Model the fold of this input.
Amino acid sequence: MRLGVLTGGGDCPGLNPLIRAVVKRGISEFGHEFVGIENGFMGLVEPDLAQPLTMQDTRGILPKGGTILGTSNKANPFQYAVKENGRWVERDLSDVAMKRYNDLKLDGLIAIGGDGTLSIAHRLSSLGMKVVGCPKTIDNDLSGVEQTFGFDTARSIVTEAIDRLHTTAESHDRIMVVEIMGRHAGFLTLESGVAGGADVILIPEIPYRLEPIVEKIKSRGTRKRSFSIVAVSEGAFPKGGGVSVLQRAEELPGRGVVRLGGAGKVIADMLAGQIDFEIRVTVLGHLQRGGAPTAADRLLATRYGCKVLDLIRDGQWDHMVALREGKIGAVSLAESKKERRVDPRGDDVRFAKSMGICFGD
Ligand code: F6P
Done:
């Protein structure tokens, strides 16, 4: 078969190991031929962004972060940003994507991405494109998938950052607020917050009140060392308030979602009038997505890359590979439209609370 491969949405560690697994197993076991579609779905809309993807191209990429194919999170063919009369407008160019897919003589497409990329893949599938998906994202917010690759690496990076903030917080008796990615899901903040020993964890699924947070910080103030670490998700917000937005969806043509940011400053400003400690805010930003994947992410991505070829062999188009109960299986791409969230009453939050962590509720 002649198969296209693309990576869409925000990059994350593990994309290259997955591309490598697909190409290695695909060529050696199935005799497939691969075409690398560059910059996500942009490569199916714009000309000259499709190149042969060979074994040689994947040599040495296993430990590398990012993606050798490039990516884009504003290249939705159904809502494609084009400049007309000096203004950005969104147009449905799905027919162009379908035509390029046919012109490239592809027998199928492997779309590697998060909810955005996979739901585009599902829509293209309904137009007749043969697509299979591989779920990635540091947010871990995909329904039907226990763990996306990229999450483990980001969780390790954030945990290490919290460890580092601990020593300086302790030396100065400061409140360290650390803002963590994850969009509207709190998995990354919750898990790295617990692993790093944060005192306060604020996630989008639990709108917070200031009083319990102040109380928690003040109660720590009675100890010999009275610093505190506040891990705040970029999508967290106070009860009755809204999420902190850096850029509105209208300012991001082709993307269709807001850019989050500023949640750390919001809670820091709210705390400032209530406590005597000095407060510092650290925004981890894209450090969370860069660099080498962990061993766990390399393994998961390799397993996903190998398994997706089984789906193709079995004609399971319009499905994605998914880790469920420790096994890699297949889930309909329609699932990607549903989002996964932290259960505020689930064990993970319950056990974190029993460690004395305050969620501001
Ligand atoms: O979805 C992955 C993610 O890193 C989110 O956690 C974050 O909100 C967003 O992407 C950042 O996007 P960008 O790279 O466009 O700033």
In short: Residues 10, 73, 114, 137-139, 181-183, 234, 259-260, 289 surround 6-O-phosphono-beta-D-fructofuranose (CB under 6 Å). The chain has a mean pLDDT of 96. The first strand starts at residue 2 and ends at 7. The two ends are 54 Å apart (CA to CA).
